[in-house]
């Protein structure tokens, strides 16, 4: 059963130029995880560039083979390093993990 992991962040920075740079830094850090995590089958990161300012700033959508793969990702050293950077930049975080239905 594939697990989809969706995380959104609202950045603490209010200056649009600095916020854009921080969002790009987060995106690059998360995208660097591709190919490093066993059981991760997909990873996409998006920056809110279209919607209103009330939208969240950055989203991660990643798929894992199963709950064990998601759990391994959470403690993987590369992921822990990226989350250390992210925590210093965000005001809020939300997350949803769910099973994808078989097609």
TrEMBL record:
Give every Stress-response A/B barrel domain span.
Answer: 3-98
The protein's name: Stress responsive alpha/beta barrel protein
The residues the entry assigns to the signal sequence are none
Output the superkingdom of the source species.
Bacteria
Q: Which InterPro entries does the record cross-reference, listed alphabetically?
A: Dabb, Dimeric_a/b-barrel
